[in-house]
Amino acid sequence: MNGIELARGYYEEFGKPMLEQEFPELLPFIATGFVGSGSERFGFDDAISRDHDFEPGFCIFLPGEDVVDRKTAFRLERAYAKLPREYMGFTRSMISPVGGSRNGVIRTAEFFQRAVGQPDGNLTVQQWLEIPDYALAEAVNGEVFEDAYGEFSAIRERLMDMPEDIMLKRLAGNLLIMAQAGQYNFSRCLKHGEPEAAQLACGEFVNSAMKATFLLQGHYMPYYKWSFRALKSLLFTEELAKRLSFILMADHTDSQVAEQKYTFIEEIASYMIEDLQDRGITKAICGDLEKHAYSVNDFITDSEIRNLNILASI
Question: Do residues 90 and 55 make contact, with C-beta atoms less than 8 angstroms apart?
Answer without folding.
Answer: yes
